[in-house]
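Extended Data, panel c. Modelled sequence:
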Amino acid sequence: MAKSRGGGGPGSPGGRHQSLSGTRESLAEPGGADELSSLGSDSEINGGGGPEERRVDKFGFIVGSRSAEGPLEEVPLEVLRQRESKWLDMLNNWDKWMAKKHKKIRLRCQKGIPPSLRGRAWQYLSGSKVKLEQNMGKFDELDLLPGEPKWLDVIERDLHRQFPFHEMFVSRGGHGQQDLFRVLKAYTLYRPEEGYCQAQAPIAAVLLMHMPAEQAFWCLVQICEKYLPGYYSEKLEAIQLDGQILFSLLHKVSPVAYKHLSKQKIDPILYMTEWFMCAFSRTLPWSSVLRVWDMFFCEGVKIIFRVGLVLLKHTLGSSDKLKTCQGQYETMERLRALSPKIMQETFLVQEVIELPVTERQIEREHLIQLKKWRETHGELQCKSPPRLHGAKAISEAEPPPRKALEPVPSIVVSPGPAPVPKARKSKEKSREKSPAGPANGPGAEGNGAPGSARELLHPQVSPHHQSKESLSSRESEDTYL
């Protein structure tokens, strides 16, 4: 998928219609009808009195469209409620779970995040919730800026292509398209050196199906910067490198498929670009997309590699499957029209979980392919940060501020007696019965007491307001002395 660039053309400023010029209202202006205008407005889709009431499936896709799901394997309601309860406990105690029970989080992501909590869970897993809290008001600030005209026109022309049969994006000027425009425009202002890439639009659209625009923006930022850094840069160097990594891993996972693709001289970039850049959102059935994204947010890019390897293995991994793929054209057609069986949610997820491809293997292969790249192409032009493999790595790289855990006393009283070494504690006990002299009088320092400077660093706290942390710090101090 090529990087979109601004410029001339029928949709450019000065072309057949005006650019959005950074405004949201112009999206809803009349005119500019396209092939989707006949689908109706958001209110009609939601049963608000349209000429023909349209039904949608549980994911929001219009029933009867090719995007709508067929019969699905439903999770029993009792099981779903139990999972919701467990996820609520995790989300309400997220730092503790991430620090001590990350494996449990991973197992629960593999089982599938409850739909009612999926959006919130993705924000916690990706670290976008922390990112938003660290940048309060930033999205609103970007939202008010006009934006670069060269990006605005390209974004506007891409809006109607994103899930046109979903109730959020079905109508031109509807709330879904407006929010999608806002998120994508904000990213071009947040990262002007990157601008806009067409593959970012479906990513942002999926996020908007699960969360408001501001939260979706920061989630997009985390995907672009932490999970898939460099994927959306102008030269697409990162995706080309990952294509070679995928091909090398395929040699170990399915030698038959590897040999066939090598014989046909089919470059990985021809079949895996949309898979990886759109995180399979335009490839798999929707139930499978959501399960893959649940695991992707938790475990990182290795999930994307595993899905790609599973699809290649089960499409080209045996001599029987290759009988109808004798040439390059037939092979590419097979990869464009994957078998529904191998994309089915239960089958695909189980295959992905069981495939033994690790972060270490991916990073080792990355170094090998990077060395080959430098020998043939020179240094990478895009200096993207190293990718982080999932929620645990992101949490450790950017730990959230924990002000609540700091032992900050609510009441500070005047300094009391200075801490006394253990050797002198017995003498102090004998003095307790008699009135004590001033602790920090003129002769205190001369008698070997630590002095008032230490008291200022460690003021005493009223016992009614001491936290457990402050008590533990006092005990460690006594032990040290």
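Residues 359-377 form the longest helix (19 residues). This feature is highlighted in the accompanying rendering.
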